[in-house]
Amino acid sequence: MTLVIGPDDPADPEWAEAASLPEVSALVRAGRTVLVTLPEDETEAIAAAAAYAWAGAGVFRTSHPATSHPATSHPATSHRATSHSVRQALDMTEALLGRRPPALTRRGLA
Question: Which in 10, 27, 74, 97 has the greatest CB count within 10 A?
Fold first, then answer.
């Protein structure tokens, strides 16, 4: 399970902060819960979130406040869109890794 937090949300003292993919991988292998801070640019944040999640990071700090219910909020501002987009990328990565069921399945697309 992954967690998206905002810039002002407190970090758990048990979390280890990482700044690179090799560092994330090493900390995950050591059994640590890894916190990464994502870039401010939305496109970069989405890509980084997916890559860090694939490497095993579990906590993602965005530069904007996280939305509490991204599926029901209306992303009228970029900070909400960023948090929602990051959450979608994390959910997709978790599904690809087999950690959660996909949001939608299609059968018989021949």
Answer: 27
